[in-house]
Design brief:
One of its GO terms (cellular component) is nucleus. The chain is 45% helix and 14% strand. The chain is built from nine helices and six strands, in the order ααββαααβαβαββαα. Strand 3, helix 6 and strand 4 form a beta-alpha-beta unit.
């Protein structure tokens, strides 16, 4: 089942039925389906492996199941998650490298609200963002989905008095 879903780039999550016997037995009754795996889409039972194989063979599987977003779409969404978005090693509460710590200190001194994304938690984003932004290092600061730059650029903007206007969406 997982192999088929992955092959079709279908976004899914799973539950280990061996981890909870009550859920394991309850789902059989709830769905009136005695075996596993069971595939649900938007809370509706689609069926088991045989049904999924039939749907795949008839090319209906792709129309029933939600696709996982492509990396570039995901990066566009992430870079626009907040007006000011920082991709860094660690998060607001705990920087995990000196460059990230320095940029946090600078951003915190501005009083501007921002969000962070810990690139150490998602290797696909960590590598993909370098290509997406054409910027090879971290941290990376975005304002309204546009790359501002890394630590050196942010330091320069601060020294020139341009950081606050930049963070507030001015160029």
């Amino acid at each position: 089942m997982v192999e088929i879903l992955n092959k079709h780039n279908i976004q899914f999550s799973s539950f280990d039925i061996f981890s909870d016997e009550e859920v394991r037995q309850g789902l059989k009754t709830y769905s009136n389906w005695p075996t596993y795996p069971q595939l649900y889409v938007s809370g509706e039972l689609i069926g088991g492996l045989d049904i999924v194989k039939e749907l795949e063979a008839s090319e209906e599987l792709d129309t029933i199941c939600p696709k996982a977003p492509k990396l570039e779409e995901r990066l566009k969404v992430l870079t626009n998650k907040a007006s000011v978005m920082l991709f860094m090693k660690g998060n607001k509460q705990e920087a995990k490298c000196g460059f990230s710590k320095q940029i946090l200190e600078i951003l915190n001194s501005t009083g501007v609200e921002y969000e962070t994304f810990d690139i150490l938690e998602d290797e696909e984003v960590r590598q993909g963002l370098k290509t997406f932004s054409n910027w090879p290092t971290y941290p990376q600061l975005y304002v309204k989905g546009e790359l501002v730059g890394g630590l050196d650029i942010v330091k320069e903007l601060k020294e020139n008095g341009e950081l606050l206007p930049t963070l507030n969406g001015g160029n």
